[in-house]
Every structure is written in C-alpha cells, then in structure tokens.
Amino acid sequence: MKTCILLGDQSDIAKGLVPFLVADEWEVHGWHRGAVAKPVNWDLFLCAIGKVAPVGPWHENTLDDFYD
Predict the structure, then answer these.
(1) How many Å is the maximal CA-CA distance in the chain?
(2) Are 10 and 49 in contact (CB under 8 A)?
(3) 17-68 pLDDT, tens per residue?
(4) Calpha distance 33→56 (Å, rounded)
(5) Where are the beta strands (DSSP E) in the chain?
(6) How far is 40 from 47, CA to CA, in rounded Å?
(7) Distance from C-alpha of 21 to C-alpha of 30, rounded to nearest angstrom
(8) DSSP 68
(9) pTM of the model
(10) Within 13 Å, how many C-alpha atoms sit on residue 43's CB side?
C-alpha cells in the first residue's frame, strides 16, 4: 500500500482529500498542530496548511492584505 503524509489534516481541504486518497488505496497519516508525529516511510507528501485570505483579484490587494 502507498503511504501519504498529510499536513494540516484538520483543514477542510484535507478532510475533502482523504476519502479520495483512501478510495485510491493510499494509507493516510495526518498531522496537525498539537499532534505527535510518528516517523513513517512515505510515497506522497501533501501540505494543506495555510490561509486563503485575501480572496479576490490579486491585483486589487496591497501587500499588507496578505499579512495579519
């Protein structure tokens, strides 16, 4: 079985990806802030950590819009 490490496994996008990975016979090992990671050999590494703001056309935002 193929093994996937999924960072940010509690995010909505990660939760949406897991069923597809499992259906394709991937063994998914998730990690999120506060979890203890176990070392595993992996074939696929996915990172679902980040933020989607600001939303809208990028050229209408200032550089400050991308930082908290």
Answers:
(1) 46
(2) no
(3) 999 999 999 999 999 988 988 899 999 999 998 877 777 888 888 888 877 5
(4) 28
(5) 2-7, 26-31, 44-47
(6) 16
(7) 12
(8) -
(9) 0.72
(10) 8
